[in-house]
Amino acid sequence: MSFKKTDNQNYYNPIRRGILNYEMILPNERVAIGLSGGKDSTSLLYFLDTIKKQKRLGFDFDIVPICLDMDMGMDLSPLKEFCASLGYELTVVPTHIAPIVFDIRKESSPCSLCAKLRRGILYKTAQDLNCQKVALGHHLDDAIETYFMNFLFHGKMESFEPKSYLTKTNLSLIRPLIYLEEEKIKSFVKREELPVIFNPCPADKKTKREEVKHFIEKISEDYPDLRHRFIQGMEQGSGTNLWETLKVQDVSHKI
User: Fold this and answer.
1) Which end of the chain has fewer CB atoms at under 10 Å, N or C?
2) DSSP for residue 155
């Protein structure tokens, strides 16, 4: 693995800032990372591992990688090997989520049920492994897409939170990549040749989220400050369902 001078500015500083701003990780906590085999969660593991080993938060914490086997015949060996190379044993949880969603329920819009089932199993596994936090690989573009999906399809002006407490599980859900743009993650994964496993899901790239992604890409061409303005609006705007940081933010510079 390599390290470039710009990596702090592009990756580690924004991640560290997000973790500290929202108090995502506390000293000596066990943080479960939900790994799917995709670029986002794989890069999240790599970034958090580096932050942990270099003590960039000023304290120690534990990382617990977890992957759900969706029963779609995915070869998880590259992900297991990647975790082992960083010094972790990947916990693989066998499930029958894919057959339930596609064969038994025959869902026409499968993403909602699939996500609900995955979250339930992931949270239960994190609890069994004595974790206090569950980290997901959602990034800035995911947050913007969620905002526009809620607005366009539900008439709500809100996105997911960088950190949210799950009352039924006594866990907190955190998104340490919240300040990172997807394109930067793609570039990092390609540069470092991090393992990315093909997603065999029949609904992949065929969802409303994919449509909204293309919509955002188009308007970003005319309004290149869109992502910066989104963070500014969520953290400094007025109204409900906005992000409340622990500190007053300086968002005068672009991420």
Assistant:
1) N
2) -
